[in-house]
């Protein structure tokens, strides 16, 4: 368990707020150096070590980093491309479905890179969209509430605990509101695919008076101070960060299966300098770039060439088939269909409210 906590503690990566572009001058001092334009949902302070590493290897390139929300990354690329304008040279976002949609709809171009053939098959869509991080969903729990028993370690145990505790835990369970949380919706959609009895879990949470939130921090704050005893399907990077700073927060990677999400990188079709975008993506996927991401950005590396605790390689060796990475494929776009999305949300609300 301690090793699992160590692994997860290294992959905290907050979702960004809108910020002004940040400019990184070329290291060779050339004021007229070519400029790599990046659209990204990752906070600029977290992205800085990767950018600096890239510029050390490419001292003749300047970088303009545009930090924005995930929906804005997608919408801006589409809007600029459709208007016949140039857009970012590289796009990096945690909205897996929207990134794959860009690729599927022709807004991203093929990038055949040195690591393409060695990249995990699930993490590479036609050499166009690449998963570059490895981030699991976990159960979180209030440690003092489990002094005399182990916390649930599977969905069946989660349901059994809620039923057995009854009124003692009523109103003290939290999870994402899938109508407002993109990652919450993604995890729920994957649950439906992975677990045939998922609606029993949702029904049990409804009967336990589950509280819904759009952010991880709102749930983790309440687990930390004991208002909540359990949180379901919480992004492990946030959970591990809270656990490292709040001793009463514990986490479990569910042993029946653990969904793993990723942040996806691609080179837009209308990139002003696609060769610079590919150069940055290649660095991101290189052993050096993935090591920087794991050690300095504190996000788990995907590359099979990188070893160490904060890597998909080590986590997979430890947990094996328990881990269920979300494949980078058009299957991600199923729930962008508004009818299907509305249908899933309607059933979610119906099952919760029926209790």
The radius of gyration is 21 Å
Poorly predicted runs are 9-17
User: What would you call the quaternary organization?
Assistant: single chain
Structural class: alpha/beta
Major sheet: size, sense and barrel closure?
A: 8 strands, mixed
Gap from first CA to last CA: 34 Å
Q: State mean pLDDT (0 to 100 scale).
A: 91
- Helix content percent band: 40-55%
Q: What share of the residues does DSSP label as strand, in percent? A: 15-25%
User: How many helices in DSSP terms?
Assistant: 13
SSE arrangement, N to C: HEEHEHEHEEEEHEHHEHEHEEEHHHEH
- Strand tally, please? 15
Shape: globular
Give me a quick take on this structure.
By secondary structure, this protein is an alpha/beta fold.
Structural write-up:
The protein has 13 helices and 15 strands. With 355 residues, the chain is an alpha/beta fold. The strands form 2 sheets. Strands 1, 2, 3, 4, 5, 6, 7 and 14 form an 8-stranded mixed beta sheet that branches. Helix 2 packs antiparallel against helix 11 (287-297). The chain is globular, with a radius of gyration of 21 Å. 49% of the residues are buried.
């Amino acid at each position: 368990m301690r090793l699992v906590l160590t692994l997860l503690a290294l992959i905290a990566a907050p979702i960004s707020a809108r910020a002004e572009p940040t400019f990184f001058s070329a290291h060779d001092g050339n004021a007229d150096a070519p400029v790599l334009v990046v659209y990204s949902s990752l906070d600029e302070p977290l992205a800085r070590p990767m950018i600096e590493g890239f510029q050390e290897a490419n001292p003749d390139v300047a970088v303009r980093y545009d930090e924005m929300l995930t929906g804005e990354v997608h919408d801006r690329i589409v809007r600029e491309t459709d208007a016949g304008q140039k857009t970012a040279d590289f796009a990096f976002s945690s909205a897996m479905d929207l990134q794959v949609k860009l690729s599927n709809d022709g807004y991203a171009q093929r990038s055949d890179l040195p690591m393409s053939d060695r990249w995990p098959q699930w993490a590479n869509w036609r050499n166009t969209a690449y998963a570059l991080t490895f981030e699991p969903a976990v159960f979180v729990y209030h440690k003092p509430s489990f002094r005399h028993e182990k916390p649930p370690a599977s969905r069946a145990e989660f349901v059994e605990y809620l039923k057995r505790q009854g009124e003692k835990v009523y109103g003290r369970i939290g999870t994402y509101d899938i109508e407002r949380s993109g990652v919450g919706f993604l995890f729920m959609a994957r649950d439906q695919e992975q677990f045939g009895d998922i609606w029993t879990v949702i029904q049990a949470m409804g009967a336990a008076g589950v509280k819904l939130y759009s952010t991880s921090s709102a749930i983790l704050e309440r687990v930390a101070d004991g208002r909540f005893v359990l949180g379901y399907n919480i992004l492990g990077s946030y959970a591990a960060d809270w656990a490292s700073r709040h001793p009463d927060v514990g986490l479990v990677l569910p042993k029946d299966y653990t969904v793993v999400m990723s942040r996806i990188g691609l080179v837009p079709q209308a990139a002003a300098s696609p060769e610079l975008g590919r150069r940055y993506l290649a660095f991101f996927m290189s052993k050096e770039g993935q090591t920087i991401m794991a050690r300095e950005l504190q996000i788990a590396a995907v590359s099979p060439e990188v070893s160490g605790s904060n890597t998909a390689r080590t986590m997979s060796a430890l947990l094996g088939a328990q881990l269920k990475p979300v494949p980078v494929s058009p299957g991600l776009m199923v729930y962008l269909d508004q009818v299907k999305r509305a249908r899933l949300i309607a059933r979610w609300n119906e099952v919760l409210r029926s209790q």
